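Bug #77: duplicate submission created two jobs. Keeping one. Sequence:
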Amino acid sequence: MLVVPGLLAAQASRYIPLDDPRLPALEHLVALGDIDDPSPSVRPIRRADALRAIDSGLARGTLRDSLLGAELRRAWREDSLEAHWEAGLHGGAQGYTEARRDPLHRAGRDGVRPYVEAPLAAIFGPFALVSRPAIEPRLKDDPDWPGRRDLSITGRHAEGYILGEWRWIRLFYGQMDRNWGPVGLPGIPLSNYGYPRPELAVEIGNDRLRLRSHALTLADATDSTGAVVHRYFFAHRIDLNLSRRLQLGLWETVILAGQDRTFDGRYRNPVTLLLLANQYGLGAEGNVMVGVDARWRVGGRTTLHAQLALDDFQYQNRSGPTRYPDRYAFTLMATGALTPRIAWRAGYTQASSLAFRTANPFEAFTDQGVGLGRSFADNDQVILRLSLPLTRHWLAEPEFTLLRQGEGRIGAPWPTGTAAGDTPFLHIGITERTWRGAVAVSGRQGAVRLTGSAGIQQVENAGHQRGRSRTDFAGRLQATIGFDTRGGF
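Kept job's structure:
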């Protein structure tokens, strides 16, 4: 395919990173119903797809905030030169009341730390090379950070990938944040809860039918005897765009682990069912999760989203003393327009008490203890969020959330014997309740980029201790100033 110049010719388009301060404005236009979702249930979005959605909204007359649309179009415009480059340098600070990025499961120290990043990109026709190194001392305070903590200066690559893109195929190698699922909550199969890992990904198809596959080698683990356990993760999905109103996505993920385990071919094959390659097929060990995403526009500007994942269903011995509960997770979300300028988003999600793990602790859907999708199970959550532009550069998002968290944890030992049968489907032990009211602000104007949120959290049964309550302020802010430039080769 690399040598067929005519049928496969295309220009590479970079992805919009999930931490881009202008991305919430695009999601606001999608929630309003002003533009179509460029990539339903799959993030990140390519710049070219975002621009095409904005242009389509302008052409149909559904994009009511033309100034906001024009600002996003200017920010993500594509260079017409076949070979070109972009570079930037941004510096500032991060302030946080807790270093963990998840405000509902607070952990890590507070602090104010410097932050510097240098986004770099080079486009050569169908190839894109993207790198965004960052100096981020906050990392050593974050309990979910898998890297070193004994340094005064820590850093990472928020993005770093090579992309090859032709008419019907995309090849990707590198790392960047991803999320599969309704916007506003971490995806069940893949999310940006943790930090990006190097992967090989392939996409084949067009806007009506697209197959995606992702293969990752996870960090090795060590068992009780000191032996090294190799671990691998594979995900694939097929997206069907049945109409402008209805889109479906079917997906599977699997964790493979073992001392002598390799990433054998039947799992890398993107057009086979992992479930049949596992317990219903050759009988190889592995933890498989299957799921479906659906997006349905029920009215002119109201859209329903759903994601359902099944980790295990006990179709045998459902009443036995040693049976364990079904493992599942799901999300229901609705979005729409409250006024021509204000969008709303309301959702409910639930993950069962034993979701994302199994009797073999090395087959849990985690990498170095942090979830590949969700990092916490045994909980349910209600979320209500509004979004409204303050100007064409800035967006405000008031939010109300209730999280009910049981004592089940992804890293906890698997219940055995009668303890398995006594495990509830949801909310093990004492349930901790977190009520959160907050406001987030994001955007960019000139050289200034800002993302942040501030809120009050009321926690009942704090630390899973009955009757213990506390009220905390939870806030985080990242502000930078810098420049971007571009040119041609």
